[in-house]
């Protein structure tokens, strides 16, 4: 898994990850959902894109 965090503005960040298999994604999402509920984040939206990565670059 590769994880990315980008500061979009003073009030917001973008977090996204690329995960190699559906089984690994299910395991990771289960843990992340539990963690997010414990942190009581007031998240506005979550989006899941399911498809191949067309391009990737580490900066």
Keywords:
59 residues; alpha+beta; 1 helix; 2 strands; flat
Q: What's the helix count?
A: 1
Spatial sequence of strands, sheet with the most strands = 1-2
Whole-number average pLDDT? 79
Morphology call:
flat
Proportion in β-strands: 25-35%
> Multimeric state of these chains?
single chain
How large is the radius of gyration? 13 Å
Describe what you observe in this structure.
With 59 residues, the chain is an alpha+beta fold. It has 1 helix and 2 strands; from the N terminus they run ββα. It has one helix at residues 22-39, and strands at 2-9, 12-18. The chain has a two-stranded antiparallel ribbon with strand order 1-2. Strand 1 and strand 2 (12-18) form a beta hairpin. The chain starts with a strand and ends in a 20-residue tail after the last helix.
Give a concise summary.
With 59 residues, the chain is an alpha+beta fold. It has one helix and two strands.
Secondary structure layout:
Blueprint: E1 2-9, E2 12-18, H1 22-39
Antiparallel strand pairs: 1-2
């Amino acid at each position: 898994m590769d994880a990315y965090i980008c500061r979009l503005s003073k009030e917001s960040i973008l977090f996204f990850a690329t995960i190699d298999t559906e089984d690994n994604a299910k395991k990771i999402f289960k843990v992340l959902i539990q963690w997010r509920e414990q942190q009581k984040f007031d998240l506005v939206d979550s989006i899941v894109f399911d498809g191949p990565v067309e391009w990737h670059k580490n900066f």
